[in-house]
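Hey, can you fold this one?
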Amino acid sequence: LTLWTSSALRTATALVQRFESIYPFLKVNVFRTGTGALHNKITTEALAGQHNWDVMNTLMPTRELIDRKLLARYNSREAEMLADQGLRDPGGYWTAIYAIPYVMGYNTNLVKAQEAPKSYDDLLRAQWKGGKISIDQDGYELLQGLIHSWGKEKAVDYLKRLAAQQPVARRGNSLRVQLAAAGEHPLLITMASPLQLARRGGAPLNWIAVEPVPVSLHAIAVAERAARPNAAKLYVDFVLSREGQETLRSVQRIPVRKDVDADPPALFKGYNRTMLQPVGREDFNEIVALYNRIFELR
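Sure. Predicted structure:
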């Protein structure tokens, strides 16, 4: 079985090792690269008539992969246990395997719990102006999520006001968590998992789910021209199964099954969330350009 993935190697290895222990007659060959590079590799090789993968998991597959008929329809029986309808493609082309919520973190040495922002409007207070908020240079999910929840006009107007707070844009969620823990920024908007992991390790950090919480998804899909389609479907079933989701939880990922809570459960429960969905290349490029203009990036 050939798996192409943009998950961290630690995540992919944990899943593959458990899968192979259950199905010792199958050997999984793993190719790992970044999300953009993975999508480009799939489309470029397909244009050349090459179809070298059976199953892949990546940040939300783009509409282009579906429109080019590179993904097969597969509705796993395990998908019935997903915690939310937004976690699967209505056409059966992809299914989420773990969630990536974007939350507001704060340094507990610099910000008292009662003073920490509890809403998006709270981030606009004068006390958070002038390099006090760390944002992701590539944090397009925030804009996409707010457009989905509020509409484009309100979302853009809000982010312009947030930009007037002079946040510091830097690439890398894990790096920004480390810098916030070191006291470089009192606040940051970032993925929930690295914040929680750092907090568990003793860093002076906590986080708040500022609603609506944009949630990106890491999804799995079977190749339309898979050489081993049945093995690919078996792998999908495993990753979505209780055992597969527990394996993901063991490497600090946020599972998406009803019967497998995150660690802690608050990572994916108790707040209003917006599940991000695939967009076409043109729509995505528009979101990227708009985000860059708002925060004067590049």
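The CA atoms of residues 42 and 78 lie 26 Å apart. Let me know if you want another pass with a different chain boundary.
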